[in-house]
Amino acid sequence: MIKMGGRGTRVSFYYTREPGAEGQILADQGEGSGRPLSDVLDRGPLPIRAVFELIGALADVLTVAEEDNAIHGDIKPGFVRVDSAGAVTLEGYGEPRRGGRAPEGEPVGVATDTYGLGVLMYTAMTAQAIGAIPKDYDGHDDTILQRLAGVDWSAIQDKRWFDEVLHFLCSMLAFDPSMRPHPLDVANIFVELSHQIDGEDLVDWARDNIQDDRRGRPRGQRIAEDLGGPTSLSGPISNNPTGGFRIAASAKGESTAFWSKEKIAAMLAAEDEQESEQEAPRRESWSPAAHPPPEPAPHNEPLRNEPLRNE
């Protein structure tokens, strides 16, 4: 996709996260392969395990894009593609942005894209747009809680880590960009959580539901095998000496200080523990009133057990 602007030619580029644990990510110009997520969601929501893997894959993309000083600024289903092998593409990088769904109204860094992932997760789980969100602090947080209360969480509602995951999702959708987690935290958490959920994974779901759009690269064909990097790209990726396929930070075992691998493992290990009815009775339903999320914390501060909004 090449756009002409007042200063000359603008080249749009994309990142594709290949399926599998290897974590290979490709950057190239134009459009990726697969079907737009917006088209796929016309048939209904994705299975929750597939949603978690989708969000983890996109968060992996954001960590690589940040290395290239590339901010998307308006993540939405029309910019996301999934091919029949389960590869996930985020396209539209390099295009001008007038604003997005984040309350700041314009890209302010990778935190704006973290917010976009939170909105996309809601849409993928419900096949519905999140709708208008007020731009004031209290109205924003009240609306976010109302939207999340309407999601069908039954597939994971009995998990010991359910409340903490809801809190984490609220932090992704925090009003203040500085309070949102880093994309690497999002990748590590949702990839690990997907292993804890039964049901159809992203690869199986894509195989059964995606017919590839061949306008992009043919499925399975790598067009940037030269690790010296493509030389025809403009924008941040043209200056990246690694180029070609790179390994996502989560696949390399990297983590932030706030959500370390040990902390994530401890959260999930609780699922294997036996609990008495007195210690943890079975949940009937989740609601903001019953389980108020904490104020989201930046990735270098501990998560606090406080309401999302100020009292």
Written overview of the protein:
By secondary structure, this protein is of the alpha+beta class. The protein is 30% helix and 11% strand. The chain is built from 8 helices and 8 strands, in the order βββββααββαααααβα. A 6-stranded antiparallel β-sheet has the order 5-6-7-3-4-8. A two-stranded antiparallel sheet has the order 1-2. The protein is globular and about 40 Å long. The N terminus and C terminus are likely disordered.
Tell me the layout of helices and strands.
Layout: E1 2-5, E2 8-11, E3 13-17, E4 24-29, E5 35-36, H1 37-40, H2 48-67, E6 80-82, E7 88-93, H3 110-126, H4 137-149, H5 162-172, H6 183-194, H7 202-209, E8 245-247, H8 261-269
- Enumerate the strands of the largest sheet in spatial order, edge to edge or round the barrel: 5-6-7-3-4-8
Radius of gyration: 19 Å
- Mind summarizing the main beta sheet? 6 strands, antiparallel
The computed structural class is: alpha+beta
